[in-house]
Amino acid sequence: MLSKNKWLLKDFDEYAAEEISKALKIKYPTASLLCARGYSDAESAAHFLKKDCAVLYDPYLLKDMDKGVLRILSAIDNCEKITVYGDYDVDGITSVCNLYKYIKSIGGDVDYYIPNRGNEGYGLNTDAVMRLIENGTRLIITVDTGITAVDEVKFASQYGVDTVITDHHECSEVLPSAVAVIDPKRRDSEYPFKELAGVGVVFKIICACEQYLTTGKTYTDPDDMELNISAIIDVCKSYADLTAIGTIADVMPLADENRLIVSYGLDRLSLSKNTGLNALMAASGADTGMKKVTSSVISFTLAPRINAAGRMGSADIAVKLLLTENKEEAEEIAEILCQSNVQRQSEELHIMQEAEEIIRSENLDKNEKILVLHHDGWHHGVIGIVASKLTEKYNLPCILISFEDGVSEGKGSGRSIDGFNLHTALSECSDSLERFGGHALAAGLTCSKEKLPEFRKKLQEYAKNNISEEDTVKKIEIDFEFREEDATLELAEELSRLEPYGASNPSPLFLMRDCAVTAVNSTATNKHSRITLERYGEQYRCMIFGKAPDELGFAEGDTTDIVFNLGVNEFRGTRSRQMIIRDIDFSRALCEDITSQYMLSEDIADKRIFPENKYIPDKADCTAVFRYLKDLSQLGNNRLLISTAVRKLRLEYVKILLIIKIFKDMGFIDCSYNSPIELSFDLIPQKEKKPLENNELFKWLSEMCTYSV
Question: What is the CATH number assigned to the segment(s) 55-269?
Answer without folding.
Answer: 3.90.1640.30
